[in-house]
Amino acid sequence: MSAVLEHSPATDPKYGGSKEGILHHYDIGNDYWGLMLGPAFAYSAALYNGPDDTLEAAQERKFRWHMDSAHVERAESVLEVGCGWGTLLRMISEQPRVNNVVGLTLSDAQTDYLNLLGLKNTEVRTENWAVHEPRQKYDSIVSIGAFEHFAKDGDTREQNQQVYRDFFERCHRWLNPNGGLSLQSIAFGNMRREDASEFMTTEIYPETDLPYLNEIIEAVDGLFEVVAVRNDRFHYARSYDEWLKNLRARRDEAVGMVGEEEVQRFEHFFKLGSVGFRMGKIGLLRFSLRPIRNNWSVDGSFENDSAFRLA
What we know:
This protein is α/β, with parallel strands linked by helices. It has 11 helices and 9 strands. The strands form 2 sheets. A 7-stranded mixed β-sheet has the order 3-2-1-4-6-9-8, with helices on both faces. It has a two-stranded antiparallel sheet with strand order 5-7. The chain is globular.
């Protein structure tokens, strides 16, 4: 278990990557992102099922995996930390039992885009998780592609662990006793932090420091049971390849949107990222987590939990 530091990400503006550092990569135009990402409009690794699978189908499968892992099918109130352009928010809002959906993003452009969609029972907040104050407890929390931005490049391992621990402590408090948390994050694999590409750390993800698998496991210790964890690094490599193909198919249009230099930057980024995942230098971790409580019955089910009883 991590030691508790004197400062927290909620009060220390230097703790974790800044909003400006994160938006350096994300706020370059919704139309440009849509051109690269395709109809799914999802900027995170898809979940493929065979060589003939399409990017759109694989993205929907990814979202279904996270919904199943967080038990959204029995949820009424759901939080998504890092909601992007709302593909998962839309899917959650369409669930018959859900009556309260909250999405957090740091991007004003994403918030404006989502507000125009008018999703049912959905509130989008331009807000950091570290200052989030829920109006009610959640039954499910999902976070895809946000965790890798929580720690700041140059901070110590102890500082990184504190921000990770703080996130999981908050999720534990925010969840109802029988809730579920699903998490997806890029992570360092068989490489050292100091060997990370300067292009990635300065041009693409400034101020960001990726976690290692063992750091996430340490951060959830005593708070969440790890129900499942998988490393789908080849799925992210394939996602990068698909985005690069989309970009090149409409390259002239993309240059007209953001300029030649920006397009070249993303071409280099997608190629470099694909190689990194294939070599195992970076991984793509997906977690299904269940809060640790003191209300287990002897048969392994939750006591007094109708959701676990057969009809």
